[in-house]
Amino acid sequence: LATPDVTVADLIGDVDPIKAANLKLSYADERVIHFGMIPRANRCIFVINELPDLQARIQVALFNILQEGDIQIRGFKLRMPLDLQFIFTANPEDYTNRGSIVTPLKDRIGSQILTHYPETIEIAKTITHQEAKLDENQGSIVHVPNLAKDLLEQVGFEARESEFIDAKSGVSARMSITAYENLISTAERRALQNGEEKTTVRLADFLGIIPAITGKVELVYEGEQEGAGVVAQYLISNAIHTFFPGYFPKIEKLEKQNETTPYSEISEWFFNESGFELTDDCSDEVYKNVLDGVEPLENLIQKYQPEIAISDKYFLKEFILWALVEYNKLSKERTQDGFQFKDPYAKFISRLS
Q: What gap in Å lies between CA 278 and CA 274, rounded to an integer?
């Protein structure tokens, strides 16, 4: 790893005064040389991570090795047929102000390979599952619906397009990895509190990924004005808004008066009932009973997603509720213990009465 305290002696070598004293040698004797990491890595692949962090004078020390294959230590010019393959890694120059690659060294680098963010949700999920550090017990306790995995990755895609986040700084894949670990931990914590052997991730558990988002993105001025936590919630909401038409009929902004839509039955249920509250730490039994009480949700799933796995059905029900909030068909309020879902006009009507 290239850090500002790396020296030429570390990489190339230097005269060792202790060796000279022990062997009673003159500093003009080549035997007093202590070789650095690069000469000792002959016939190897030598990787330098974060190359721009190396001081310019140290980058210059790499010139001869790349061009001529020889090294120079304190006036000793040694011709050493080094057989090395160098690999350098670096972020884009506008990503960090810590340093840059000097032009002559860049000219001696054979090939430059530019990487990019995952282009699809499936690729992003593969990276996340490969890199996430999860305990074996977590995998047996917490079930993660496929839709929850897709939503998690979509949050990253939304962040890269967000006007509140600095596009130059970018949003690394590490955000999704950390968010996935937090999501599992949030569900695991609830299961342990309720004494349950197994549980399923809920949409409310996505509040647990907010610290992972706020710690991995850099906000522009408008984002700072909104606040990091608010921006993170925007990203989750946008991901739900983006994914919903892929599972259920699109909700039009303008609808004809008295027109029946696939969601009319749900809206009528909330209009006639007083709504309900889903607490963050309620048991799976309570969670399922509350969602089962909204019968139109079951009817909608049976009509448009009949092949959904039973283990994923309740997450899908909660997903519908959150999506209807994003499309202004329901209202959602954060309470001290969870979320309260109501008819969007319930508060207005209660004030009139």
A: 13
For 333, residues 6+ apart whose C-beta sits below 8 A from its C-beta are 339, 340, 342
Of 107, 139, 163, the residue that ends a domain is: 107
Q: Give percent of the chain with pLDDT exceeding 90.
A: 52
The pLDDT of residue 52 is 85
Tens of pLDDT along 196-215?
Answer: 999 999 999 999 999 999 98
Running DSSP on this structure, what letter comes out for residue 254? S
Question: Over 80: is that where the pLDDT of 64 sits?
Answer: no
Closest CA to 301 of 145, 101, 80, 81: 145
d(CA 181, CA 197): 19
Handedness of CA 252, 119, 309, 290 (dihedral sign): negative
CA–CA gap between residue 165 and residue 336 (Å, rounded): 29
Label residue 11 exposed, middle or buried (CB < 10 Å: 0-12, 13-18, 19+). Answer: buried
Please name which of 304, 309, 312 lies closest in space to residue 250, comparing C-alpha atoms. Answer: 304
Q: Flag whether 259 is in a domain.
A: no
- In which element (H, E) is residue 142 found? strand 142-143
**345 vs 103: CA distance, rounded Å:** 64
| Residue at 63 is within a domain | yes
Q: Residues, the chain, total?
A: 353
Where helices occur in 132-257 by DSSP H, the ranges are: 136-141, 146-161, 173-194, 210-214, 221-226, 228-243
Question: Does some domain include residue 253?
Answer: no
Q: Where are the alpha helices (DSSP H) in the chain?
A: 8-11, 17-23, 37-40, 56-60, 63-67, 103-107, 121-131, 136-141, 146-161, 173-194, 210-214, 221-226, 228-243, 264-272, 284-292, 295-304, 310-326, 346-352
What pLDDT digit, counting tens, does each position of 98-121 carry?
668 888 888 888 888 888 889 999
CA dist., res. 286 & res. 1, Å (int): 51
Cα(351)–Cα(305) distance, rounded to whole angstroms? 38
The total of structural domains in the chain comes to 3
Taking the whole predicted model, whether its pTM rises above 0.90 is answered as no
User: Which CATH number characterizes residue 39's domain?
Assistant: 3.40.50.300
